[in-house]
Specification:
Structural class of chain B: alpha+beta
Number of domains of chain A: 1
Distance between the termini of chain B: 87 Å
Radius of gyration of chain A: 16 Å
Helix content of chain B: 25-40%
CATH architecture of the largest domain in chain B: Alpha-Beta Barrel
Largest sheet of chain A: 8 strands, antiparallel, barrel
Number of helices of chain B: 14
Structural class of chain A: mainly beta
Number of domains of chain B: 3
Helix content of chain A: under 10%
Distance between the termini of chain A: 17 Å
Oligomer: heterodimer
Strand content of chain B: 15-25%
Shape of chain A: globular
Number of strands of chain A: 8
Radius of gyration of chain B: 26 Å
Largest interface: A-B, 39 and 40 residues
Largest sheet of chain B: 8 strands, antiparallel
Number of strands of chain B: 26
Strand order of the largest sheet of chain A: 1-2-3-4-5-6-7-8
CATH class of the largest domain in chain B: Alpha Beta
Amino acid sequence: MNKRTWPLALLVIAACGKDETPPPSTSTLSGELDLDIRDKASVSIEAEGTSTRVTVSVSKGFGVLPENTPVMGPGSIEAIAETGGTLYTGRLSGPVVPGGRCGDQPVSIGFSLHRDESNARVSGGMAAYCGAGVWHGTPVKVLRLSGSMSR
Amino acid sequence: MHRAALTAITCALVSAAWASSAPAQDKFALAMPHFNVQYVAGGMYGYWNVPNAETDLDADQIEDQIISESFEPLVAIFERHPNWATNVEMQAYMLDVIAARHTALLDRLRALAKARRIDVVSFHYSDQLYIAYPQDDWERSQDLVRRTFDKHDIPLSHTVFCQEGQAGPALADAMKSRGYTTLVWPKNLWLYQHGEFETQPLYRFDDVFLVVGSRNVAYTDGSTSVSVTWTFLDDGELLATSDMNPYFPDLFKADAEAVAEYEQRLADLEAQGYRIATVDQYVDAVKDRVKVADLPELLDGTWQPGTTDGVLKWLGGKGLWAQNERDNHVRSLGAMAHRELMAAEAIAAKAGIDASAALQDAWRLLFLGQVSDATGINPFRGEVEYGIAHLTEAIRIARDVVVEAKAALGVATVTIDPASGTVTDGAVPDPHATLIDPPIALSIVAEGRTVEQTWENLGTGHDRVTLRFGPGARQTVTVGFPSPLDDEFLTTLALDDHAVRSFKRSDFVFDHYHFALPVGLIGPVPGRFIIKDQGQVHVAARIYREKGDVEFIDLTAPPDESFTWVFHLVDGTPQDALEIARQINARRQVVR
C-alpha cells in the first residue's frame, strides 16, 4: 500500500467500529529521537481529525528549551507527494530560558521532520527563534533530530 | 633654498621620471586562501563518542575559532605590510558571523578591503554544492551575497573562487551578469581533464578572464615578461595553524611561527621584485600586455578530482564515517526544498501576499542546508544532520507560505506551476502513464535488497523507470544505463539551465568522469537522454571515455531503509529533453 494512503486506511478502519458514533480519529506517532547526536528528545505527534499537535521534551536545552519539560504547539502531517515522503511540522511555543540565547524573550521553535517512504527513521530539526510567535527569521540555534518514530 | 631640500626635490623628480619610463612590474605573487566557516558544519558536538569539553564545541564556537585562530592572523599580516595585497575567499555567511561576534575584526577587514589590500572573494552565501542544483538556487544565493556585502560595507571582489574549487564553463556568463571579471580555475580540475599543460598568464573565458590557480607562470613574448608565483591556494584555515584543521579544535591554534614563515616568504618575494598582489590587480596589470589564450573544453567539477573521484564524494561517494553518510537523502532533500520554495514563491505572488521575508529566510536555510560538507569529503553524522535540519526547516517555512497563500486565495488544494506562475484550483492529474516492457536492460547492483522495476511510457519518446529498493545491509547501490559508445555526449552545465552542451570524449584524457547534473540531464549519445528525478535520486552520473554506459552510484545508501529512484529516458532533441528535465527538477509542478 502506498504510504500516503495507509494513514487514511487507519482512519477508515477506526471508523468501522460497531458503535453508531464514530470514535474520534486519533493517531499518535511517538519516539525518542537523538538530539544533536548525544542527547534525547521525546517527540509526540498527535493527530485528531484535522488538527495535529506536536509535543517535545528534551534532555538538554542548549539554551533554547527547558530541559525535561514538554513544549508543545500545533503542527501538521503533510505528504511530499511527488517523492513519496512525509513532512511533520510544528510551531512550538517555548518559555523564556533563563540565561539562554534569547535573554528575557520566549523562544519559538520551528519543528520539522522528514520521513522517506514508510521507513521508521525520521530526521530533521528544531530551529529556535527569539520572541513569541516568531516562525521564521535567523534562528539562534538549529538542533538536529534523528531516530525512529512509529505509532 | 637649503641644499638638502634641493637635493630632495631633484631626487624626487628623477625618481618620478624613472617611474614613468620603467616597465611595469611583471612579477606577481598571488594567493587565494579559501575560508569556510562551515568547515565543521554544525560544530564538533558529537564528533567523538566520549564527551570532552575541549573538543565538544558547538557551531558558534567552531566558527569563532576559525575566525580567531586562522582568519585574524592573516588579516594582521596584511595590516603590517601596506604594500602587500591578497585575496581571501569566504562564503558571505562568514561575513555575517564576523559582523555578529567579531566586530572589531570586521572594522579591520573593511579598512583593508576598501584600500584593496584584502580583496574579499565570495560567490555563494553558504559553502553550498551549487553545481548540483538548479541555477535558481545560486541566483538567490548570489543576491544574498550582494546584500550581505552591502550590509557590512565590504567591497566585493571581482574575482571568483568557490568552495571545493567548484568551477565550470558556464560560470562565464553568470559572472559577467553579476559584474565578476576573473575566475580562478583549480589546476587539478584542468589536469584531470586534459593532463599536463603549459600555463598561460591569462585566458579568455567568454567575456571575462580566467587564470589557473596554483600554477606558476613564466611568460615571455618579445619585450614582455610576466612571472606569477602562487604563495597559497588551499583551505585558508591551514595557513596560520601549521596545517591543523578545525576538526581538532584543541590543536587548531594560531601558530606564530607558521605566520612568520609565510610573512617572511612574502617578504623574500617582494625583495626579489615580486608584487604581492590580488588577482584583480594582476589581471589589470597584464591583460593588455600578454596574449590572452584560448581555453580548451572544460567541464564542471571540483578542485581535487583525483582524490575525490570528481564530485562523487559529495554525490554518492563515501568517506571515513560512511556508516553515517546518506548522500542521496541529503541531496534529494535539497532538491525537495528547492521545489517547495519555487512553488511557495509562485503561489505567494499569485495570492498577492507579502511573504518575501519568510521566503528569504527559507532560502537562506536552503543555502546552508545545501552545504557541501553535509555529504563530503568525510562528513560525520553531525554534518549530515546539519544539512537535513536546515533543509527541513526551509521546507517547513515554505509550506507555511503555501498555506497562507491558499487561505488568501480561498482554496483547499491547488496545483502550482512555478514555470508558468500559474496556480490551478484542485489537483491537476499527472500525465497519463502506460505500463511498458523495459526498453533497455538496466544493470543494477543492490546486494541483499529487493528491487522492483516499473517502466511507464509518458508520451512519444518519453519513458520513466521507477526502481523501488527494499531494505538491505549493504550501502552500495548502482544503476547502469547501457548505451553504445559515441564520441559525443551532452549535458547541461552549472549555472546555465537553459542550454544543452555537446562535448567530445576524445577531447579529454580522463578514464571516467562524474557529473553533478544541476537539472539532472545527461545524454550519453546524441538523441538519447537520461534524466534523474533529483527529489528521489541525486547521486553523480558517471560516464566513461571508452564506454557509452552511464552509471549512478551510491555508496552511502542507508542500510535497513527502503528508497525509490526515478529516472526518465527521453529519445528526442536536446531541447525536448531539457524541457522535461527543467519540468522535473528546476520548475516542478506540485499539488499542495
